[in-house]
Amino acid sequence: MEKSFTEYLEKNISEIHELSARYNGKDRKHAEVLLELVKKHVKELEELYREKDEHFSVEAGDLMVLCLEMIREQGKDPDKVMNLCYGRYKNKLAKLINNA
């Protein structure tokens, strides 16, 4: 299996996820908090995109961290998930192009 993620990324996501679970999982399910944070980040990304704000890229990176946390929260291997997603996106886009 091809790897999308480095040991450095995995180490950092693991550390972030542990801290996040301790803080965000105190009073509620951690996954629910992560989903709320994703929604807030998407809204912020939309605003930054409309404003052509250069901070957009940093917020997109934050969203990637949250998504990786959600994958970890479910106990899934991010490399396996991404390899599945690559194929899904390529197939879907190819079908859309062929049907256009």
Descriptive notes:
- With 100 residues, this protein is mostly helical.
- Helix 1 crosses helix 3 (56-73) and helix 2 runs antiparallel to helix 3 (56-73).
- The termini are far apart.
- The model has no long low-confidence stretch (mean pLDDT 96).
- It has helices spanning 7-24, 30-50, 56-73, 78-99.
- It is 79% helix and 0% strand.
- First-last Cα distance: 33 Å
Query: What order do the SSEs take from the amino end to the carboxyl end, as H and E?
Result: HHHH
**What's the number of helices?**
4
Given as residue ranges, the uncertain stretches (5+ residues, pLDDT < 50) are: none
Q: Estimate the mean pLDDT confidence.
A: 96
Range of helix content: over 70%
Largest sheet, if any? none
Shape: globular
Strand elements, count? 0
Report the portion of residues in β strands: under 5%
Question: What structural class do you assign from the helix and strand content?
Answer: mainly alpha
Tell me the Rg in angstroms: 16 Å
Layout of strands and helices, then pairs:
Elements: H1 7-24, H2 30-50, H3 56-73, H4 78-99
Helix pairs in contact: 1-3, 2-3
The gist of it:
With 100 residues, the chain is mainly α.
Which structural traits does this protein have?
mainly alpha, about 80% helix, about 100 residues
